[in-house]
Amino acid sequence: MQNWTYDSKIELIHLPTYSPNLNLIERLWRLMRKKVMDYNYYDTFEKFRTNVLAFFQHIDNSIDELDHEVALKVSSFSSKFSRSIFKN
User: Fold this and answer.
1) Alpha-carbon Rg for the chain in angstroms
2) 15-38 burial: b if 16+ Cβ within 10 Å, else e
3) Which residues contact 27 (CB under 8 A, 6 or more apart)?
4) Calpha distance 85→10 (Å, rounded)
5) What is the pLDDT of residues 26-75, one digit of tens each?
6) Measured between alpha carbons, how far is 53 from 59 in angstroms, rounded to an integer?
7) Residue 66: CB partners within 8 Å, gap ≥ 6?
């Protein structure tokens, strides 16, 4: 990969091996935990499972909150590194 990008306008940026703040799926799991698990107690696994499935079946109800979470984290990352992504 480094040989291919050497002559291109693309600069590789190496991210830490574990960077949940940059991983989109981690933000989805965080939102699911907030909506389903925080301040809730399920006395059976089936009730917990039903609520997790309901969250994903009605994810469109949380799309604004998810968009905000993703945009906030991505914009802070991209503003920091945007100048180094493409070589001039």
Assistant:
1) 19
2) eeeeeeeeeeeebbeebbeebbee
3) 66, 69, 70, 73
4) 6
5) 888 888 999 999 989 999 999 999 999 999 999 888 888 877 766 655 55
6) 10
7) 27, 28, 31, 59
List the end-to-end C-alpha distance of the chain, in Å, as a whole number: 19
* C-alpha–C-alpha distance, residues 20 and 88, integer Å: 30
Question: Are residues 5 and 86 in contact, defined by beta-carbon separation less than 8 angstroms?
Answer: no
Q: What residues contact residue 33 under an 8 Å CB cut-off, 6+ apart?
A: none
**Which pair of structure tokens corresponds to residue 84?**
């180094």
